[in-house]
């Protein structure tokens, strides 16, 4: 499809144009129904049929949006059916088939409806037009005028005859022969068939005074009370007509109550024609009313049949689409199953020679080939997985860190030893990340091109010494490094121990003779010196005191060099901490000491003497830090030492917090032997403490406190022997 056409389709889908079409079609249909109802109602009150163009326009205007709604409903139903199938929610094939079938049914149906409506409405308009109605009304008027002329003639003859009879009565009585002859002459000359003179009696009944009835009609009542009422009301003559005769009544003398009755045999054919003309006109009027209803019924029939045809077309399209889409849906479902890894999936064999059957057979051949190739790949991958697991196990068992980077500098492989050293910020995997983000130091070393080097690397606040080796291959670089911090520390401690033994051996031998000689000089010559004896006493005392200090230093050297192996026994760590804390409280009453423990007892395997030595040295350092700060602080300063004891299943943690002078600037070297910031310190106290903590399977850390002070955290293993055995097995 052209690009502009695809853009138009995308824009229509985003605008949800089909929903807007449904709303527009519903609105138009509602308006057209309302207009049709108002039009039909208004025309029925006028008594006229609907014009053909108006009727056809209303029908087409109502049918088009109704068909559109039906087609859109079929589309929505097609999308809903497609959503339930495996083809997804688009339902394009269903929609296209519904659209095609709807057009095939709707367009011809609409054309036929237009033609039929115009033809029918034109015929109705022709037969029930004003001209046709005018011809019938003229014929009816002609017949009626002829008959009414006969009635008028009888009435006029009766009135004239009543005047003549009134003259006869004035000349002769009613019983005379002359009156009878004159009366009879009047009846015959006026072509009347019957006549009677009636007189009203006092009781209101009519009496026949004279009568001329050649045909001898036996009539009981010629004038009715209704006729008399009309005459009394002022009418000159009352004329009645029937199929046989025309009768008229007129007063001769209203005051005396004398009336003349006359009758003439009517023309049956004229009356029949008049009545037939009236019947035809009434039938035409009824037919006109039925023609309006027939118009509506015919339009409704066209409307219903048209919608039924379109509905049947939509239903047939849906059924046809279901039958056509079912094989494709089966193929799609099978393809998705194969995509999920089930290559043994097959579709139902179709023996037909059409395209669907060929597609099914080709699909089954493809799946058989894929199944064979996949089985081969699975076998190869299994072998590769075994090799990969072996290589990973080897890499994980190596204590050295191994990092493999590609040509782009991104990390491709890293073992757990390297992760523990390089990833101190969390468990985020470095795979795929640049080496410069993971370890800028190693990235600089790789960029320098040096194959081997020894670097200082910070790990979680500690400075580690790493021996790094970089090997380059065709795929990138492989970096291996070994943490030699412990080795260097052990070597340094061994060297310091050897130095301490040598110093203790070389210094301790001459100290005793020097001290003895000085004491002998003071005892023998102290009294003999007369010139400045105080100076002699001060000098000898200084020598003896310095020799004592040297002896203490030599003892510390000896203790550091020959620290005995700990003897582990079951102890209560809380009791040992309380004992050490009690000694410091007694010796330093100006300092506030506090102790907190999360349990009543804290079992621990330790050397009682060495554990007490650790607590004494740490508490002594805290007291000395507080005293150093007290010299430079205000008078209201008061030192505080807080000791907390906590434990879990494997370790016991002792924390000593003071508000003293804080950590020195060279805090990284605080645990090295002979590292001290005090004037009389040897720098061996914390080194001995650190060595004891390590031999107890623990570790030691120093952190500064907010506002000044230091927190010393010592973690001891509850069972150091089992911990050391596990370390030996891992090594």
Automatic annotation (TrEMBL):
Alphabetical list of CDD domains matching this protein: HAMP, HisKA
Annotated Pfam families: HAMP, HATPase_c, HisKA, NtrY_N
Residue ranges crossing the lipid bilayer per the database entry: 16-38, 58-77, 97-120
Chemical reaction(s) catalysed: ATP + protein L-histidine = ADP + protein N-phospho-L-histidine
One cellular component (GO) term of this entry: plasma membrane
Keywords: ATP-binding, Cell membrane, Kinase, Membrane, Nucleotide-binding, Phosphoprotein, Transferase, Transmembrane, Transmembrane helix, Two-component regulatory system
Main location: membrane
Domain of life: Bacteria
Record's keyword annotation contains Nuclease: no
Protein name: histidine kinase
Originating species: Novosphingobium taihuense
